[in-house]
Amino acid sequence: MDLKKISDQISVSPQITPDDVATIAAMGFRSVMCNRPDGEGADQPTFEEIEVAAKAAGLETRFLPIISGKVQDSDADDFGQALIELPGPVFAYCRTGTRSATLWSLSQADTLAPAEILEATQAAGYDMAGVVRRIVNGGKTPTDTSDAAFDVVIVGGGAAGIAVASSLISRKPGLDVAVIDPADIHYYQPGWTMVGGGVFDAETTAKTMGSLIPKGVHWVKSAVAAFEPKDNAVVLDGCRVVKYNRLIVCPGLKLDWHAVDGLVETLGKNGVTSNYRYDLAPYTWELVKGLKKGRALFTQPPMPIKCAGAPQKALYLSAHNWETMGALENIDIQFMNAGGVLFGVKDYVPALMEYIDRYDADLNFFHNLIAVDGSAKQATFEVSKPDTEKTTVTVDFDMMHVCPPQTAPDFIRVSPLADAAGWIDVDQSTLRHKEYGNIWSLGDVMNAPNAKTAAAARMQAPIVAENLIDEIEGKSPTAIYNGYGSCPLTVERGKIVLAEFGYGGTLLPSFPKWLIDGTKPTRAAWILKEQILPPIYWKAMLRGKEWLAKPEKVSAK
C-alpha cells in the first residue's frame, strides 16, 4: 500500500486489497472512498469486497467511480460533498491515486489558492498540470477559449521585467511584447536602505507602473496563477489565458514574513521594523533617531535573500547615526546572522570588520530568527552551529531590524519551470531555461548562483534580450552572463564599500582602482549610490539604455 498524504483531511493511494483495510483503520482513518470502477483491471478486487472489510474494521465507505481521464465537474462536486459527509480523515484510492488526487484538487479549488493545491498534490507525487486551468477556474471547466497572444510575454514588472522589455524593444522595434503584473506601483527597492538611514524620502523610490511600461509594450494588469509551458501558455487569475511564442519569467521573490512566528503581528510597532518594506523603512529611521540607549538587533535569515548586504547596511547606517548623536556607547548592537560569515566574498570582509569593531557590534553567527514577542520585546533564535545540537535562545531588544526569510513565489515553486528548490531552472551563462528552449528568466527568481540585486538584473536584462533575439533569428545564444552583482555596503553616512563580484566570488570592478577601490570605504562610491545610481535606474536601466551593461559576447556557433 503506497499511501500519500495530501492534507490532514485526506490521503490517497493506488488500488488497495481487503487485507489493507485493517492497516488503514489502525492508522487512524475513519472512512474509505473508492474512485475506481469495478472491472477496470483483471487483478482488481471489487468495491464490495473492500466495503465488507471496511465495515468489519469500523470504517465508513463511499463508492464514487470515475472513468480514467474523464473527471467531470459534477464528479468533483460529488467528491467535495463526500468529504463533508464522511468522517475524517478519509482514505481515497483508484488505480494509481491520480483520479483521487484530481478530484480533491478540483473540489477544493473554490476554497484554496491554486498554488496551495498544486503544492499539496506535487508533494504527494501527483502532477495536476492537466487540470490546472480548471483549478484556476474554481474547479470548473472553462467555457471561454479565447486567448490573448504575443511574441514575447514577460511575467513581472519589477526592475528585471521593465528593463528586459525596454532592452527587447530597443533591439527589435515592433516586437509584440506584453508585461504581466498586477501592481499599480513600481519601487526602487535599493533606495529603501537609504530611507531607513534618513538619507532618502520614501516617496522618491516609487513611481506608477503605467508611467514605466515602455511605449508599445502591452500591460496585462493581472496576477499569474500557473504556467503551461508545453502549450506556450500562461494562466492568469480568473482563468484567462495568455499565449506566447517566447516567455521571460522575472516576478522577483517572496518575502515570507509569516515564516517567523509572531512577526507579522508586531511589524511597524513595538520597535520592530524592516527596510525590506516600503512602508516600514521610514519607521526604521524613526526608531534610530529615538533610541538613546538599549539593545538593537539586526537579523539575517538563511540564504538566498534579496541583497545579501542589506541586513548589515541597516546596522552600519544606524550605528553611524548613534555615533554622531553620541549615543553609541549606550547601545548594545547585535548582528544575528543565520549564516557563518559576515559577507560571502572574503575580499570585502576586512573593511567591513573595521566597522563592526568601530561600532562595537557583536557578531552572532548561525542564529536564525524563528519567533518574535513584540509586546514583551523578545526575539527567539534557533542556533545551529556546526557539529553541535540545535538550541534556541531568547534575546531582549529595544529595537529590531528584521530581514525576512525569502523564497520563490508560490506560483513559481509549484510550476513546471522550477528546480527542486523552487527557483526557475536556467543555464547560468545564457539564462535560458534548461528544459524549455523558448523560456528565459532573470532577476531574483532564477537559480543561477549570483547575488540577487538590482545591479545583477541591470546586467542580466541585455543578456536575456540579446539571446532571445538570437533565438528569433535562428542563432545560438551569443551573450554570456558572468554572474555580476553589486552590493554597495553603506558602512557610514558618506562612505561605501562597493562590492562588485561574479560567479565564484571573482571581483568584477566597474571602475579603475584609482577612482573607486571597492575593497575600501570611499566617498566616491557613496556619491555613486546617492546621486548617480537612482537616475541611472529610472532613466537608463528601465528605458533600455545599457550603461556599463553591454552584454559580453561569444561567437555564435
UniProtKB/TrEMBL annotation:
Name the keywords, alphabetized: FAD, Flavoprotein, Oxidoreductase, Quinone, Transit peptide
Q: Where is the FAD/NAD(P)-binding domain?
A: 150-265
UniProt key word Coiled coil: no
Domain of life, per lineage? Bacteria
Q: Which InterPro entries match?
A: BLH_phosphatase-like, FAD/NAD-bd_sf, FAD/NAD-binding_dom, Prot-tyrosine_phosphatase-like, Sulphide_quinone_reductase
Please give a single GO biological process term from the UniProt record: sulfide oxidation, using sulfide:quinone oxidoreductase
NCBIfam families per UniProt: TIGR01244 family sulfur transferase
Q: Which cofactor does it need?
A: FAD
Q: What is this protein called?
A: TIGR01244 family phosphatase
Per UniProt, residues of the Beta-lactamase hydrolase-like protein phosphatase-like domain are: 2-110
| Taxonomic source organism | Shimia litoralis
> Which GO terms fall under molecular function for this chain's record?
FAD binding; hydrolase activity; quinone binding; sulfide:quinone oxidoreductase activity
